[in-house]
Write a structure and sequence with these properties.
The chain is mostly helical. It contains six helices and no strands. It has a domain of 78 residues. 50% of the residues lie in helices and 0% in strands.
Length: 123
């Protein structure tokens, strides 16, 4: 029996199922151009691509858009529970993940290091 390995966003060795050039074109494409590009990719490959893209923080939204071109069963075959969740996400308006964001939605970045009171007290 020919068994297919389920994909997981937790698998660090997971390879992209399409060429880097295709990913680059997809990332830069407007919605219509992306749809045309995806039309030339088999659904099972699109499902694996959706999981691969969603598994990277900078391509979450693209992964959700690619998942929207796939049937739920195809996403489930490609990634099990992750495919199920990705299918559900792709059927509602995209909301960017909130991790790493505070209050206003802007990233809080400090280049000054830690400002502890004990450091100031010893001056």
């Amino acid at each position: 029996m020919n068994r297919t390995r389920l994909l997981s966003v937790d698998d660090p060795a997971l390879d992209c199922p399409v060429s880097p050039e295709t990913v680059g074109r997809l990332a830069k494409a407007d919605p219509e151009a992306a749809r045309l590009l995806l039309d030339g990719i088999p659904e099972a490959t699109r499902a694996r691509l959706a999981v691969w893209l969603y598994g990277r923080s900078h391509t979450h939204e693209i992964g959700v858009r690619v998942a929207a071109t796939c049937e739920g069963a195809t996403l489930r075959r490609a990634a099990g529970l992750v495919g199920n969740v990705l299918y559900d996400l792709s059927r509602r308006p995209y909301t960017a993940p909130a991790h790493g964001l505070h209050g206003s939605g802007r990233r809080q970045v400090s280049l000054g290091g830690s400002h502890s009171t004990t450091a100031h007290a010893s001056l």
